[in-house]
């Protein structure tokens, strides 16, 4: 790593892939020629790669001083400080006083840099495996698939209070759109659109599913979600596709609501595509 580096334009919070794989970085603007002839894009890539190494070193070794990081990474302390400043701005690391165990010496304690919750989340996590293991334990110890289904219903019911408020605040014709916006606020990237003819109704499309990997093993999560959609919208609904099943989008068909009746039928609410 040479010391002739140029600060990358547009710092932006490094995404999980950038931190997990130092070879995968985002393009920063268009490549521009520098006086030395090297494309600006290549220099920006080098900056991000080194910044990722700094964050990774803190993950592997715990809160670290500038001197410790410089020694481990073979960088000057000035270079480490510059990368740490960028990581602090991006909320990946934070500065704190070093904890002293035993007798405290004179002078100010050394400043160390530690990962924030945001920075830690950018690295590989085992949340999916933990959730799947927990549901497997519930199934084995507490009553099989019915116990998992009960958990799934309780989980989505706890989330549904915000969805219910959003739906009750609009007219019946706007309910699907309101539900889509409420789901998007929870990370589902949902949209509502008219269903293709000859169907009469709408399609609720969820372009992202935060629990897709777990739902592959436990379809009860999808079934409980579909059931709550029927309850909230006051009509039977039909799940046409799920990301957990291998489809690109979770798609739910919502027939045109009859304003004379709001009793949901569960005949197709919990049905996943075969």
Defining traits:
single chain, 274 residues, alpha+beta, Arc Repressor Mutant, subunit A, Muramoyl-pentapeptide Carboxypeptidase, domain 2, 2 domains, four-stranded antiparallel sheet, two-stranded antiparallel ribbon, 46% helix, disordered C terminus
Can you walk through the features of this model?
The chain is of the alpha+beta class. The protein has two domains: 16-121, Arc Repressor Mutant, subunit A (Orthogonal Bundle), CATH 1.10.10.10; 127-255, Muramoyl-pentapeptide Carboxypeptidase, domain 2, CATH 3.30.1380. It is built from ten helices and six strands, in the order ααααββααααββααββ. The strands form two sheets. A four-stranded antiparallel beta sheet has the order 3-4-6-5, with helices on one face. α7 crosses α8 (175-185).
Our count of helices gives 10
Percent strand = 5-15%
Helix- and strand-based class? alpha+beta
Order of helices and strands: HHHHEEHHHHEEHHEE
Low-pLDDT runs: 1-38, 260-274
Shape: elongated
Q: What kind of sheet is the major sheet?
A: 4 strands, antiparallel
| CATH fold-type name of the largest domain | Muramoyl-pentapeptide Carboxypeptidase, domain 2
How would you write the strand order of the largest sheet? 3-4-6-5
The total beta strand count reads 6
CATH class of the largest domain: Alpha Beta
Give the tally of structural domains.
2
Q: Specify the oligomeric state.
A: single chain
- State the helical fraction: 40-55%
What is the architecture of the largest domain at the second tier of CATH?
A: 2-Layer Sandwich
Mean pLDDT: 79
Q: What is the CA–CA distance across the termini? A: 54 Å
Radius of gyration of CA atoms, rounded to a whole number = 25 Å
